[in-house]
């Protein structure tokens, strides 16, 4: 059969495609003109209207001020998205170390596009009260909220501005509480490994990031909301996805300067909002049940965060509301799930990426076997405290695999903070510390880039070089070790994080052979956040 081409259709089709191309070109040109005019307007705004904090005219800066050259300033603010780590190191070497002076660091994170980086000599200021008699006041809350941009995810501002749940952590998860929580997390960790990693003596390959994170997040979730919901697979998965989407979403939102966020942030936050509402929906019935019991006068209940929270709000009807309580629990998922997962997974990858992994594992195995025999497992805080090499490995991993480039944020909210040398900082300025550079400074740690697993425990084991004093443990912040912050607001969850990570590491070392699949994973910085190697693979098998 002969097919005759349908000319009547072909001709308009080519005309259509030309028209479509013209439309496309027109729209693209329109979009480019709109973006360029928008950028130009912003440059003018930077030059003429944006109020610049007076302190930034007095301090050194890694880059020139907007008054010198607005386009260069705008370019460097944009570059901060992928170069914050490099800029922070440059400023640390030039100003913090060489001159012991604060410096201005450009960033898309805050209004005015600049934060003030304090030198290590100002670390003792972190022990001062938030409110001083001279009327000066600062807070760490604004920086914590802005890291995850909670305001775009949680509509009820009371949750993140009135942080009652921080007090609950302080009251119930202090060092003295660890012995009470140790048996619960030890059991949960064992059950988590058996359910998730299994007892197969054949090698199997898993995603190293998720696989290790799952175990530790299950233990954390158990302390947060208790059984049986803490073991619900859907609940566990939702909480991990929520914590991750909140943190990653926050990191992306922070790459947009504040004046652009009203367009971008609500869209980026949708993912975290979705998982948050799923999590809250699953939790609310349990909270309601417990509120009923509480209202009937039953004060006692499961020993978990949810119950501690309810007891604290018992006499406060405004706070004793199921959805509000569930949201408070959800807002703790980032430190509880994401931060512990981040640190524990990084530690496993650091051990197995090290050229000395065999020696590290042999050292850990010797210690875990000995301590387990002495204490009958790791169900007491005495047993966990005896794991000095495990402690050292985790502390060293936190040092080399920092979660953020800079940390310990303090925003001035009233009066002026005196930094000495005639430098006074007024409201609206965010100050922070170059923590990653402090952790990688050769004056603080010899051979700082090396992951030296027993760096902190070795001096106390070797009879020839027996050091004075005591080994520095994960939960002990010092001016050269600040992944948990330092001073008055140092993380109140650090004893729990340290204890559960040590229990999990000990179980893993004693029961599984693990190997890294592929080359050692790399991490990179997105603005202030170190993006972890979420695709890293490991293979594992139950020890025969
Ligand atoms: C390895 C895991 C963790 C890391 C790396 C971490 C890190 C931090 C850091 C850097 C701060 C800010 C300190 C400051 O501003 O001076 C902080 C504060 C805080 N963390 Fe953690 N954290 C972890 C685990 C936890 C856990 C498990 C909890 C709760 C159960 C928790 C609850 C808190 C709270 C409530 C604050 C606010 C303290 C305050 O404002 O006074 N964190 N954490």
UniProtKB/TrEMBL annotation:
CDD domains: CYP503A1-like (cd11041). The keyword Membrane applies. Pfam families: p450 (PF00067). The chain crosses the membrane at residues 24-44. Pathway: Mycotoxin biosynthesis. Its cofactor is heme. The lineage of its organism: Eukaryota, Fungi, Dikarya, Ascomycota, Pezizomycotina. Belongs to the cytochrome P450 family. SUPFAM superfamilies: Cytochrome P450. InterPro entries: Cyt_P450 (IPR001128), Cyt_P450_CS (IPR017972), Cyt_P450_E_grp-IV (IPR002403), Cyt_P450_sf (IPR036396). Keywords: Heme, Iron, Membrane, Metal-binding, Monooxygenase, Oxidoreductase, Transmembrane, Transmembrane helix. This is Cytochrome P450. Gene3D superfamilies: Cytochrome P450. Heme binds at residue 491. One of its GO terms (molecular function) is monooxygenase activity. It comes from Periconia digitata.
